[in-house]
Specification:
By secondary structure, this protein is of the alpha+beta class. Helix content is 15%, strand content 47%. A 4-stranded antiparallel β-sheet has the order 1-2-3-4, with helices on one face.
Length: 98
């Protein structure tokens, strides 16, 4: 999770695509204009692999968009592909605020 947050902050779209599960991965990630400034990540909870092979990370992320602060809490789901955990999808646990 931390590596994906860093990749968003650094606009490392190649890493984001590579760490996304092939069944839900978009063909490309478009650059934000102007880009969000990712400023904070707090891991709230981790859940290790369950019987279906899923792992979960609940986190809070904070960002700036056009000079305004925003944040959200998400529960991300990861699953192994080619022996590596890959991001499958996520669910907002609160509405993003700006």
């Amino acid at each position: 999770m931390r590596s994906r947050f860093s990749a968003f902050a650094l606009e490392n779209f190649e890493y984001l695509i590579a760490s996304w599960h092939s069944t839900t991965r978009p063909p490309e990630i478009l650059k934000e204009d102007p880009p969000l400034q990712w400023i904070y990540l707090k891991i709230i909870k981790t859940e290790v692999e369950n019987e279906r092979g899923e792992s979960f990370v609940t986190f809070e992320a904070r960002y700036r968009e056009n000079g305004k602060a925003g944040k959200f809490i998400e529960k991300s789901r990861f699953i192994k592909e080619d022996g590596l955990l890959k991001y499958l999808d996520g669910e907002f646990l609160d509405a993003p605020s700006a």
